[in-house]
Predict the structure of Serine acetyltransferase N-terminal domain-containing protein.
Amino acid sequence: MGCVSDNRWESFPEMLSTVKETEDGEEATLEPVQFPFEKVFPVYAISLSKPDTDSIVNSGHDPIWDAVREEAKLEAEKEPILSSFLYASILAHDCLEQTLAFVLANRLQNPALLATQLLDIFSHVMMHDRDIQRSIRLDVQAFMDRDPACLSYSSALLYLKGYHSLQSYRVAHTLWKQGRKLLALALQSRITAKIGDGILLDHGTGVVIGETAVVGNRVSLMHSVTLGGTGKETGDRHPKVGDLALLGACVTVLGNINIGEGAMVAAGSLVLKHVPPHSMAAGTPAQVIGSIEEQDPSLTMNHGRTLMVQMNTILALVSFVTGCYDELADATKEFFKHVAVGLRDGRSKIAIGR
């Protein structure tokens, strides 16, 4: 899972060497030249500093990194105009950690915090944290498995902001735990929450995760999900989402409540109380409307299941109301019939009395 040998990294400048003939024209030698990165890659700053690979887990084989490199090579052949971009972003690096650090640094750079500075920060943290090394691979696999719009590992790595926000959170969370709080806040504003591995953060737009929230492993969160508090109270005040849960688009969960393991919350729901494990909740406020047949709703991503249950619930309610109406109509009919008979008998008695 670690980077390849140091020799390959050190040989990178040699790839930029030029052939220079001696004055007599008989012998040609390779002489390194200063490559104009600023001109060729004006947007994508790059650092040629030698990475520290001592702390990387060296498994000898990283299938995800191998796949990323192969995809980049194929894309560079199909789209030559992107060859420089793909080379600077992926092919110039030795491992997934270095590539991800490069991508995040260029995404988050600003005039006061340069990409080269961010590159050193991201690289140092990821190269020395085995938990992050595991998480970045489980997360990218989650995007490949669950997001039909994710075309490849490399596309998730380069373009999907949900994946980028997850990994910048992981680096910032580590910096926060190290006491480097201002630097952590410069990368992401909500960093004390605990987020597990294998997360799908679909789109990554409008997602709010409170500072005391907990998100379990292999959870899927759609866009505009809010895991928030209920006011200005302090302490442990945010939701806890169990493993394998699925929260649909625009779901709002407020307060220190639990979304059980393997639970599913329908899109647009407002959750104000606990949702039991392997159950289905929907509505505003949300109510439990059924149970989950499959054990892993976050992996199957079957949002239509909640719609079917909601429709069945509505149809059952309509049927119940219709039945009540029919019974009421029959009772009303019998009542007015009884009243009519009574009035008729009363009139008859009056007539006889006269």
